[in-house]
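QA checklist item 7 of 12: single-chain prediction sanity check.
[x] sequence parsed
[x] length recorded as 81
[x] structure emitted
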Amino acid sequence: MRNLLKHVRRLDYDAVRAAAQAIYRAKDRSHAEAAFGSFRRRWEKFYPRLVQRLGTDLPELLSFFQFPRHLWRNMPDHQHD
């Protein structure tokens, strides 16, 4: 995440960070992919390379969804519905 955020303007930092966190904090893979779609629509115009890079890495970043929830990394505010 830090690698992506270092290319974001200070003005957009908190909003981009929150939108990116919504992807990996989703309750399941389909919600994560939907969150990425929202992220892409919101930020692609301003940060096309960042969005492209995140999209390329998305399958690897979301691979934890294939494992049981109890093995997922325990993150603050991670939704475990």
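[x] summary fact logged: The chain has one domain: 2-69.
[ ] second reviewer sign-off
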